Amino acid sequence: MAVFKVEGGHRLHGSITPQGAKNEALQILCATLLTSERVTVRNVPQILDVMQLIELLRAMGVEVERLSDDAYSFRAREIDFDYLRTDDYRRRCARLRGSVMLIGPMLARFGVGYIPKPGGDKIGRRRLDTHFLGFRKLGAKFNFDVADEFFMVEGRELRGTYMLLDEASVTGTANIIMAAVLAKGFTTIYNAACEPYIQQLCRMLNRMGAKISGIASNLLTIEGVEALGGTEHALLPDMIEVGSFIGMAAMNRSELTIRNVSYENLGIIPAQFARMGIRFEQRGDDIHIPQQDHYSIETFLDGSIMTIADAPWPGLTPDLLSIFLVVATQAKGAVLIHQKMFESRLFFVDKLIDMGAQIILCDPHRATVIGHDHRLQLRATRMTSPDIRAGVALLIAAMSAEGVSTIQNIDQIDRGYKDIDGRLNALGARIERLEECL
């Protein structure tokens, strides 16, 4: 099992480019099942979750060709439906939460979809009701084998309809869109997620021949078409990496330039870091963070403690709350971090408390952080990465701590960040990847 040994206290300097967006990649790759023609995808991040999905598509019968380091072509002429009931298919899907988005395209094009209960981060209950309620609205029949933990949907003639989603689920919205593009008639989706990644999916599908309107809003209208064709698509840079690097630069009092960030697609993220007192400058499509020894958290207008909470887009993505929390430990002032969507995502704060951070875990969803203002340095410790985002937050903490920290279970980090140790070491970090015997 691999671990990181992190020597803290080293400032970063230089420039770094974010990888392609993981969350967009999972949607886009699943959408390649909607056509028998070739789909080329560029800026594909070379991370564990994405590579596992590519190998899963190949095992399902999709022709996959690697064109360059970050470009692939996909052609789903046929799908091996016998394979979908095998133990190998079950094992692959169980490792990957994004595998649930295979159902929508399979249902739309082939009239049937199978998937075992998907895996992914252990960050609390992540229900799939939105997906399957949407499929049923389109006319599909749903069955879940409780003993076998296997989902099946069947619908040979999907028909468009009106639906009001019970939550603005990103993966649920993506799955329903992919099912609806080949349904007969019009589908209206209200309370749809409208993240940039959903917008990218819709625009790609329209280039393939779909008829989707209302893109970038929470009210989508889809006119079903007979078939879709091939296309080319380039993924956005990963906004979670961009936010992670902004927080990392501030926490380590470093000067850093983040290149090619697609600034117009970052939404509220830059403004929220500004409210943390972090200075930065937009230079074209780059973000430059100057070296700053102190950053002060704003208060609300009445002087009360700032609250940073996640919310559906254009609100703050929940994937960055772990970063905001760890960055707040060395800010001047206090902040309440409110994680509304997942009840287990704050449980990594005990390690930060062990390192000397002043944090009160109010309940599974809220934590109050009182910043040290760099008067006290965090202490090195031994810790375990519980999920992708908390793992990177702990890595940021270790980079700023006094002494050498060890982070176990870094496979979780590798699922979302490619070669993060090599990329950060090139900027001046001291991170060593070791194999640890149990």
Can you walk me through this structure?
With 438 residues, this protein is α+β, with helices and mostly antiparallel strands. It folds into 2 domains: 2-19 and 237-435, UDP-n-acetylglucosamine1-carboxyvinyl-transferase, Chain (Alpha-beta prism); 22-234, Enolpyruvate transferase domain (UDP-n-acetylglucosamine1-carboxyvinyl-transferase, Chain, Alpha-beta prism), CATH 3.65.10. Helix content is 29%, strand content 24%. It has helices spanning 22-31, 48-59, 87-94, 103-110, 129-137, 170-180, 196-207, 239-251, 269-275, 321-328, 349-354, 388-400, 411-414, 420-425; strands spanning 2-7, 13-16, 39-42, 63-68, 71-75, 112-116, 141-145, 150-154, 162-164, 186-190, 211-213, 219-223, 231-234, 255-258, 281-283, 286-289, 306-309, 334-338, 358-363, 366-370, 382-384, 404-408, 430-435. The strands form 6 sheets. It has a 4-stranded mixed beta sheet with strand order 21-22-1-23. It has a 4-stranded mixed beta sheet with strand order 2-14-16-15, covered by helices on one side. A 4-stranded mixed beta sheet has the order 4-5-3-13, covered by helices on one side. Helix 6 (170-180) runs parallel beside helix 7 (196-207). The longest helix has 13 residues, at 239-251. The radius of gyration is 22 Å and the shape is globular. Residues 120-125 have low confidence and may be disordered.
